[in-house]
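We modelled each protein-ligand pair independently. The example shown here corresponds to the flavin-adenine dinucleotide entry; the chain sequence is given first, followed by the ligand as SMILES.
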Amino acid sequence: MADRYDAVVLGGGHHSTIIACYLARAGLSVGVFERSGRLGGAALSGPGPLRGYTMNHYSHWTRFYAHPAYRDFDLRAEGLRYVFPEGNEAMVFDDGSAFVGWSAYRVVDEVGGQAAWAEGMARTEAAIREFSSVDADTYLRVRDGYDAEWKQAFGRHRYTVPPPWGTPDPLEALMREGGLIEPVHQFMSVRQLAYDFFAGDELRTLFMRAATTSAGAYPDDVLGLQGLVHVLALTLSLEPAAIAVGGTGAITDALVRAGRRRGVEYHTHAPVARILGADGRASGIVLGDGTRVGADLVVSGLGMPRRCWSSWRTCRAARASTTGCATSTSTAAS
Ligand SMILES: Cc1cc2nc3c(=O)[nH]c(=O)nc-3n(C[C@H](O)[C@H](O)[C@H](O)COP(=O)(O)OP(=O)(O)OC[C@H]3O[C@@H](n4cnc5c(N)ncnc54)[C@H](O)[C@@H]3O)c2cc1C
């Protein structure tokens, strides 16, 4: 292991495996430090549940074929391929009835290009109409809005830097009083949104289920605009279902291959205990075994709450035992 890199990345999870490739592409030497024995974080697959099978331990349903990194690092050539089932979302209800949603779009080429799929839309509309005509009409209106504006706005929102404060971002620009997405929606809870958009219990349930599993938002949480568009698209099968061949871990494997090709060094069983700082700048890391690794750039892939929590604990421990840590460690913010 080198004792210095241009950039060190904390954690070897999904986001770290992406950013490491971009840092290396920018010409930096990069070291990734992961505390567990496996890279990928929640983008991980392994043996099970029966002998001879592979299962995803966490993330299951991904669309990495649409991520800029898929093209930027030619991840298809690195072995990441997808299959696209026609059936999209399904739910069985207590009374034995069931709903199956069909994709509104189909992936038509190897780089994620899509085309509208009229048959899928007709099937979804018919499936919803069996429960509620009002909700089937809502499906048509939301689908038209998604097709005309939301889909593009969602992509721009995800993959471009935020505009300056005060300038509406691509999703905020969709809000209109009396329109399908109104300003008040950005402050509503998951439950309120489910009742505002849908008349029947079936789609309300499906909406709340999608919010929980895909946005981590429970019925009384505020979902926000990004969550709303995302969860509506899931509920109504507006995006194609997609499964990575070999499981979600195939995303990690392809990214790591692309990173290694560009010189990234990945270190597992390497927990980061502390971020070093000098003159108000992060200047490296200390591993669990005390090893120091210097860097011009320290990138945390641990998520803000975890990073701040562990920095705060480090600070508190340092204050209790010595004169303080303000000059010897830096927080995620700095
Ligand atoms: C149960 C579940 C289901 C999900 N389903 C989906 C899905 O179907 N589709 C989808 O797109 N997304 C899904 N997600 C979300 C997706 O998995 C996450 O958004 C993504 O994994 C987050 O990536 P990350 O790099 O921020 O964090 P993680 O992938 O969690 O990676 C963080 C990494 O940091 C490491 N680490 C922590 N502390 C240290 C330390 N001190 N030193 C070194 N390393 C450290 C951890 O071991 C881990 O490897 C799901 C998540 C979960 C939990």
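Residues 121-239 form one domain.
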